[in-house]
Design a protein that fits this description.
This protein is about 60% helix and about 5% strand. It is an all-alpha fold. A hairpin with a 4-residue loop joins β1 and β2. The radius of gyration is 23 Å and the shape is globular.
Length: about 300
Amino acid sequence: MEKIFKTLDEQISILQSKGLTIPDENYAKEILLRENYFFLSGYRHLFIGNESTRSFLPGTTFNELYSLFYFDRHIRNILFRNLLIIENNIKSIMAYHLSMKYGIREEQYLKQQNFVRDVDRKRQVNDLLKKLKRQIRINGGQHQATQHYIEHYGYIPLWIVVKILSFGIVGEFYSILKTDDQRAIAEFFQAKAENLLIWLPILANYRNLCAHEDVLYDHKAQRQIMDSHFHKLLNISKINGDYIYGKDDLFALIIILKRMLRADDFYLMMENLDYEINLLAGKLKTISIDKVLDRMGFPANYKEIVRL
């Protein structure tokens, strides 16, 4: 069935027909025009009272719906800043370790024997090395730093190359490293290589989600993180032996950031998140902040992770 364009007045009528109270229609129209009806509607789920008719809980206002949207934008910005810190950290640490061990020229650090030698993964290694070389060739001439090295030295060292690689590519790059190299890099974060292999794709996923303003608060990652002592210390409940929070939800990301960020950066991040949570709590009338936290995967005592 083909979708039909709806005017702002028609969009308002649709929302009202679903039971949403709109005290100021002019304000609502401005928000809908600025933010997009489709994107704003993505936050309606917590306010739905009847799934069959998709109608809102009695008394739900446009301001509440927009408050959740606005909250998500703010926590997205907070987390994005810190994800960029982690992205830079992992790129820097990988570049330092691999350059020190294998050399600073492309033909040295991208030599095939530097990577996992498993026969079953030979194609993966070859494909990724081709992808890396292609990115260096295509993007190398578009950045001042890479141009400088090409013009003056004829090659680009890895600590410069990582700047033009996406976070996703860096995670793939890590996955084909030899076990000893994976362990050496993971040790900087006092983590095991098997954890980092799970964390990096999750971090890249959330980083891209934040960069493109997608819905964040109830996003579920494609992979689950391993059980940690944080789950146990926070006394997170279990169902059928599995923790109900902190596995593939936003709190799982918080646990990863707890492990990878410097303590003062993590503290400031949690202070900022807590401020936004309290601000939203004061704006909600038809639902409680606990319902939002549950969807985020945040346990009631989430603040305690700072001191653990």
